[in-house]
Amino acid sequence: MTEFLTVDGGTLAYDLTGTTGPLVVLAHGMGDSREAYRFLVPALVDAGYRVAAMDLRGCGESSAEWPSWSRTDIAGDLLALVRHLGGPAVLVGHSIAGGAVTIAAATAPELVTAVVELAPFTRKQSMSLGDLRVASYRRGMRHLLATAVLGSTKQWVKYLDVAYPGTKPADWDTRLDQITAMLAEPGRMKALQGMGKTSPVEAGEQLRDVRCPVLVVQGSADCDWVSPQAEGEAIVAALPTGLGRLEMVEGAGHYPHVQFPAEVGTAMLTFLAGARA
């Protein structure tokens, strides 16, 4: 059942599964919705967690129109939900939301017990001509740029095909139909474009201020980086010593939690057990 929380600028949609246990709040990436966690939520609830999956501003069933879509904005939304649900909480963020959960943890340590960043855009990015020699990276960037410039849902779907290399989820066609329908709603593509234009610099600057344990999960075949492992290692290195660890998921693209939910779920639960201890 969808629930709603009104914050400054709009309304956030979320659903809450589980009645007891530590709180985990899940935040998806741009152009997506809380359905991105459809395979992970049951495993977390079965393990004894109370799980809130939120639609980011501009996405899913949250309000479409917002003044801005920065990682700092999203961090504020997440912290508002944690307060509303009686935190503290573990924050899980994918892609742009990976940067957002970093900011939330750094700015409100009393509300965040641990952080999981899934294929996160948390650091300043740079691109060289040599990077374009990597075919998957070149293809992914081409479709991302076309989506940003043209506001094209077709280009976004082409990007997703590259971002999910190899075997697709069993409900792939149904999920693509849902995403396409969402982006056809007024304001939804504008939100995707707005998020795509934001910079992760603000999140990277906060890495040194994080005080809770952090798990970074990267897919080895993620088209968003020339070397996903190097990106994950750089995030861990920027955290205070001993707080971060990197988990690589072999064969996964930019959505490891959807392609390989069992592997990601196991890594998360092992990490969270250690963080609670």
Please give a structural write-up.
It is a single chain. By secondary structure, this protein is an alpha/beta fold. It has a single domain (3-276), classed as 3-Layer(aba) Sandwich (Rossmann fold), CATH 3.40.50.1820. Helices cover 43% and strands 17% of the residues. It has 11 helices and 8 strands. The protein has an 8-stranded mixed β-sheet with strand order 1-2-4-3-5-6-7-8, sandwiched between helices. Strand 1 and strand 2 form a beta hairpin. Helix 4 (135-150) runs antiparallel to helix 5 (153-163) and helix 4 (135-150) packs across helix 7 (188-197). It is globular and about 45 Å long. The model has no long low-confidence stretch (mean pLDDT 94).
Topology at a glance:
Blueprint: E1 3-7, E2 10-17, E3 23-27, H1 41-46, E4 50-54, H2 71-85, E5 89-94, H3 96-107, E6 112-118, H4 135-150, H5 153-163, H6 172-184, H7 188-197, H8 201-204, E7 214-219, H9 228-238, E8 244-249, H10 256-259, H11 261-276
Parallel strand pairs: 3-4, 3-5, 5-6, 6-7, 7-8
Antiparallel strand pairs: 1-2, 2-4
The CATH H-level superfamily is Alpha/Beta hydrolase fold, catalytic domain
- Using the alpha-carbon principal axes, give the shape: globular
Radius of gyration: 17 Å
The number of helical runs is: 11
Low-confidence stretches: none
Main β-sheet, in a few words?
Answer: 8 strands, mixed
Summarize the amount of helix as a percent range.
40-55%
How many strand elements?
A: 8
